[in-house]
Design a protein that fits this description.
Layout lengths: L1 H24 L6 H8 L3 H7 L3 H13 L2 H7 L5 H18 L1 H17 L5 H19 L3 E2 L4 H18 L4 H19 L1 E2 L6
Antiparallel strand pairs: 1-2
GO molecular function: DNA binding
InterPro entries: DNA-bd_HTH_TetR-type_CS, Homeodomain-like_sf, HTH-type_Tx_Regulator, HTH_TetR
Pfam families: TetR_N
Length: 198
């Protein structure tokens, strides 16, 4: 039990110091050696927790994606499209509060997805969350579609990622672009009920 507590403490120490250095110097300008020096640990200890510096960003992104379940639970009022937009608005809000560290984490998530042929844990979590929202809507008969829920979720997540990649990093511009692109495709795959979900 003590050993597990010590491992958790060491991992938190690495994360804390790495994030602080990333904020001070920029992610690209920080080396593993600088992180280990700031932590007062050997390089070998660092590599027991993270294979490389990039994995710190993936771990950080994972920890933020854990909030997704709470965000989904808070946003279950309104039409299905409104619920999806509320979820994305909250994700953008978190993103912009920590953009100096979450932007490189997002970039690393995309690179990881490309390297693993689309099998990114964080993108999968987002897809699962959108699937959940759509499945709940189907159960409440709030919408129907000739397409599978997973296919609809893929399109919605694709729009979200496209907007993050291709739009200037300003929260309102991102939300406006996301709402516009979602509107363009929404009617093509979802036939939404006009009744409100509560």
């Amino acid at each position: 039990m003590l050993r597990e507590a010590n491992k958790k403490k060491t991992k938190e120490l690495i994360m804390k110091n790495a994030i602080q250095l990333f904020k001070q110097k920029g992610y690209q300008n920080v080396t593993v050696a600088e992180i280990t020096t700031a932590c007062g640990i050997a390089k070998g200890t660092f590599f027991n927790y993270f294979q490389k510096k990039e994995h710190i960003l993936l771990y950080l992104a994972d920890s933020y994606m854990e909030l997704l379940h709470k965000i989904v639970q808070r946003n279950q009022v309104g039409t299905m499209k409104e619920q999806v937009l509320h979820i994305f608005r909250e994700l953008f809000s978190i993103y912009f509060k920590q953009i100096d560290i979450l932007h490189p984490a997002f970039e690393e998530t995309i690179k990881s997805a490309i390297r693993s042929n689309g099998a990114s844990g964080n993108i999968s979590k987002l897809r699962e969350a959108i699937c959940y929202v759509l499945e709940q809507g189907m159960e409440k008969k709030a919408f129907r579609s000739k397409w599978k829920v997973a296919e609809c979720a893929d399109v919605i997540v694709g729009i979200f990622l496209n907007v993050l990649i291709c739009t200037p990093l300003e929260e309102e511009k991102l939300m406006k672009k996301l709402a516009q692109q979602l509107e363009m495709v929404w009617g093509g795959f979802i036939h939404e009920s006009t009744k409100e979900i509560s």
